[in-house]
């Protein structure tokens, strides 16, 4: 007998009435129809997701999920594995890019350690879950056991529960894990049926020989696990990472619990693709912040029919690109909520 997983459910739907009211309001604001471009639809979408004609982005919740990757032993990253744990210190000490952005945005930062290769001693401000001492090398064996994959998915769901309890109006997921552009590219290859060449990139800074080697490692893994790659959960388990599974669990939980999610860079967008394959209904809850420099990012965004807001050549991760888009969301809401209507301002609403 097959048991249903928690994400196999009818998720919440956007409030069509609130979205219709917001759409109607947009037609009455003192500007030519459509002149605020993507910001108009953004306000309407947020109205539907938040269930009110006038949406807002108060305190965003930024969860950073961290985990190590066994595939790093294949020489696929420009940086050593120890950086994952070192950056966990930096996140809570306030010196990482996302720490600065979170302060500027008055966001709540939730730092979750899902398992570094060398387990860390307890760090104040970090939630240590230690699903394992990093994943296994997926070029040789499955990255995770089924139990580890489910535990990581649940860790993401828990962060969304905390976000809701804290009254957050937007969920941002970030990631930290040396080697995770390799895992993300492998996942995208398996889910999109694309060769590694189409999805690999330099990550933290590989040269062209390094990128070619990274593609070969991924191709080997796709052959090794071919028989298991027909099911999205098994794709995630065989090729993913703890932090990528946590992101997927968080995006699914956003649809479950009715919280809009703003998706960050290449790795987060691949986690979003996994999510949509696990339950297509969660797509409605995902907003896409940016298209970054990692070459596969655009392909994955296209597969999700996503229109990202920004293109800034970012290739950092940590949730940084999503954080950078928060002011745009706030301004889209302010325009929608505070502009005068044609009637209020006594401005003619008729083109000649
Ligand atoms: C100091 C430092 C801070 C980072 N913050 C995010 N990443 C980013 O780089 C890593 C992925 O790249 P690759 O697959 O090439 O290892 C991830 O940890 C990602 O979050 C960082 C990387 C470094 C070196
Ligand atoms: O787009 C990203 O998320 C990204 C790209 C390179 C390295 N780390 C993250």
TrEMBL record:
Task: Cite the entry's keywords alphabetically.
Answer: Cobalamin biosynthesis, Glycosyltransferase, Transferase
Ranges in coiled-coil conformation = none
EC top class, as a word? transferase
EC number(s) given by UniProt: 2.4.2.21
Q: What are the recorded Gene Ontology BP terms?
A: cobalamin biosynthetic process
Q: What is this protein called?
A: Nicotinate-nucleotide--dimethylbenzimidazole phosphoribosyltransferase
**Taxonomic superkingdom:** Bacteria
Recorded catalytic reaction(s): these are:
5,6-dimethylbenzimidazole + nicotinate beta-D-ribonucleotide = alpha-ribazole 5'-phosphate + nicotinate + H(+)
Pathway membership, UniProt: Nucleoside biosynthesis; alpha-ribazole biosynthesis; alpha-ribazole from 5,6-dimethylbenzimidazole: step 1/2
Please give one Gene Ontology molecular function term for this protein: nicotinate-nucleotide-dimethylbenzimidazole phosphoribosyltransferase activity
Q: What does this protein do?
A: Catalyzes the synthesis of alpha-ribazole-5'-phosphate from nicotinate mononucleotide (NAMN) and 5,6-dimethylbenzimidazole (DMB).
Database matches in PANTHER family: NICOTINATE-NUCLEOTIDE--DIMETHYLBENZIMIDAZOLE PHOSPHORIBOSYLTRANSFERASE
Record: active site: 318 (proton acceptor)
């Amino acid at each position: 007998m097959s048991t249903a997983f928690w994400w196999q459910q009818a998720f919440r739907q956007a409030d069509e009435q609130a979205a219709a009211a917001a759409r109607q309001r947009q037609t009455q604001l003192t500007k030519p129809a459509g002149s605020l471009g993507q910001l108009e639809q953004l306000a309407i979408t947020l109205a539907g997701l938040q269930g009110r004609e006038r949406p807002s982005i108060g305190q965003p919740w930024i969860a950073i999920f961290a985990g190590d990757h066994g595939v790093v032993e294949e020489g696929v990253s420009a940086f050593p594995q120890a950086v994952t744990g070192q950056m966990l210190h930096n996140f809570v000490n306030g010196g990482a890019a996302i720490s600065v952005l979170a302060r500027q945005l008055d966001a709540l930062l939730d730092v979750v350690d899902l398992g570094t290769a060398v387990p860390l001693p307890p760090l104040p401000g970090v939630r240590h879950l230690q699903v394992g001492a990093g994943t296994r090398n997926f070029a040789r064996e499955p990255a995770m056991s089924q139990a580890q994959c489910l535990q990581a998915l649940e860790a993401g769901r828990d962060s969304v529960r905390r976000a809701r309890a804290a009254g957050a109006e937007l969920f941002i997921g970030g990631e930290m894990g040396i080697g995770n552009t390799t895992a993300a590219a492998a996942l995208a290859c398996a889910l999109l049926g694309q060769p590694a060449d189409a999805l690999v990139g330099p990550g933290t800074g590989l040269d062209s020989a390094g990128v070619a080697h990274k593609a070969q490692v991924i191709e080997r893994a796709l052959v090794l696990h071919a028989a298991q790659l027909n099911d999205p959960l098994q794709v995630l388990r065989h090729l993913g990472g703890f932090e990528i599974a946590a992101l997927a669990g968080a995006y699914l939980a956003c649809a479950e619990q009715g919280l809009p999610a703003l998706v960050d860079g290449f790795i987060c967008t691949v986690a979003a693709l996994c999510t949509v394959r696990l339950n297509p209904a969660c797509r409605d809850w995902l907003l896409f912040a940016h298209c970054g420099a990692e070459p596969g990012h655009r392909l994955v965004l296209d597969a999700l029919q996503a229109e990202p807001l920004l293109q800034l050549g970012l290739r950092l991760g940590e949730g940084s690109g999503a954080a950078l888009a928060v002011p745009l969301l706030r301004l889209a809401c302010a325009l929608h909520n505070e502009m005068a209507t044609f009637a209020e301002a006594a401005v003619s609403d008729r083109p000649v």
